[in-house]
Design brief:
Layout lengths: L7 H14 L1 H13 L8 H13 L4 E3 L8 E6 L4 E6 L13 H21 L6 E6 L8 H7 L8 E8 L12 E10 L15 H15 L8 E8 L10 E10 L2 H22 L2 E10 L6 H14 L20 H4 L5 E7 L11 H7 L2 H23 L1 H14 L3
Parallel strand pairs: 3-4, 3-5, 5-10
Antiparallel strand pairs: 1-2, 2-4, 6-8, 6-9, 7-8
Helix pairs in contact: 1-4, 1-11, 2-3, 2-4, 4-11, 6-7, 8-11, 11-12
């Protein structure tokens, strides 16, 4: 049976009603994740709670999916195109869900349930909804590992939304590429008072490297970033430090640009090693690609949100609005058409992401309500991808064209 774009209004209402009916369950999982923050690859409670929720709703779930202990996979459908929704649920050390991943998880689960409701209501609709547990977004590169494991193979589109502090909603937005690495300087221990000349100071090397990158910031582009912290710098003041470790994050507008900047940063470290007589070793921890959103999907989401939430504006410009953050959803956007909508939730005292205040904001009822609205939009776009051949073709052609650049 063919489905036209014209009956999407009725089907969208099915989505909306279904998600509203699931709201008590969704609210509970949201609170469970928020109140039990877990770091990347340690999200055992979140994993188990979500798997239990899905099984209680009658779904077959693959826990510990794709070789990751805290990933899961759940699909429903009868072949056709596959629309995936990413579920993030890792927290930040010390400040809990200060990036609102409890809301991201809730929104994607809701969108999946809403799309499945339509598929169940009309078995003639060909297509599959896929819900993926994506651990360790906060620096752990969970989606990168899922890509390598083939989790996004044959996926027609992948959608998720992300809460941010105000001012507003961004459907069509990009973000920066990010390359993270660890540098270890090795020197030689010696008694700092009796025989300092016998030592090689790895802390001096770390300080030189840090200062070198600080000066390098004067000669980089306005949208580029160099950020670093000292993880190890010695244990006793009276011992010449034999080992120091720094963790660095380099960002640029594209992956290629980021890697070029990283080469310049590495030279600062190599120079510090030469100056102090230390050796230096580098370990790449993970690389996040720039986000390449599907404009067609963003436009469709914006149009659906006019009916779902007419009081909220989701404008789509000719070019994506740049975002000063990085995410491994960027990597996903390089392997399949993707959507990473950003929506504002109310905050106190101008709290921004990655602060204790945003953790508090992510746990409010209003943040949950706004998340549920975005889930209805995501499910609606997912449905259109399954039943609107012309739209699905446009999405794929835009993605294929972007891959050439």
């Amino acid at each position: 049976m063919a489905h036209s774009y014209h009956n999407l209004g009725d089907l969208q209402q099915t989505i909306n009603n279904s998600i509203d009916n699931f709201d008590p369950v969704l609210n509970e999982i949201n609170k469970n994740i928020h109140e039990n923050p877990e770091l990347g690859y340690e999200e055992f409670k979140a994993h188990d709670n979500i798997v239990s929720l899905l099984r209680e709703q009658g779904f077959e779930v693959t826990p510990h999916a794709h070789g990751l202990e805290t990933s899961f996979s759940c699909s429903y459908g009868n072949g056709g195109r596959i629309v995936a929704f990413n579920v993030e649920y890792d927290a930040l050390p010390g400040i809990g869900h200060a990036c609102g991943h409890n809301l991201i998880a809730t929104g994607s689960i809701a969108a999946f349930l809403g799309l499945v409701a339509v598929l169940k209501s009309d078995p003639s609709i060909q297509g599959t909804a896929l819900l993926l547990g994506t651990p360790a977004e906060e620096g752990g590169g969970g989606k990168v590992k899922l890509i390598d494991a083939g989790a996004y193979k044959n996926v027609s589109a992948c959608l998720m939304t992300h809460p941010f502090s105000p001012p507003g909603n961004v459907a069509y937005g990009s973000c920066m590429a990010s390359s993270k690495f660890r540098a270890t300087f090795t020197g030689k221990a010696a008694h700092a008072a009796a025989a300092p000349h016998e030592g090689i100071n790895a802390l001096d090397a770390a300080v030189l490297a840090y200062n070198g990158t600080s000066m390098l910031r004067q000669q980089i582009k306005p949208d580029q970033r160099i950020q670093g912290v000292l993880l190890e710098g010695g244990e006793r003041a009276n011992i010449i430090t034999p080992k120091s470790v720094l963790d660095y994050n380099v960002r640029g507008s594209t992956l290629e640009e980021t890697k070029e900047l990283q080469k310049r940063v590495v030279k600062c470290f190599e120079g510090a090693a030469i100056a102090t007589g230390c050796s230096v070793e580098f370990l790449e921890t993970n690389t996040y690609a720039d986000l390449r959103p599907s404009r067609a999907i963003c436009v469709a989401f914006s149009e659906i949100m006019k009916t779902v939430a007419p009081d909220h504006s989701w404008t789509v410009g000719e070019k994506p609005e740049p975002g000063a953050y990085s995410t491994d959803q960027g990597n996903v956007s390089h392997v399949c058409p993707s959507f990473h909508g950003v929506y504002a939730i109310p905050v106190k005292d101008n709290a921004v992401n990655h602060t204790p205040g945003f953790h508090d904001a992510a746990g409010t009822e209003e943040a949950h309500r706004l998340t549920i609205l975005t889930s209805k939009g995501m499910a609606g776009v997912g449905l259109r991808l399954l039943i609107d051949e012309a739209f699905a073709k446009e999405v794929k052609e835009q993605f294929d064209e972007a891959q050439k650049h």
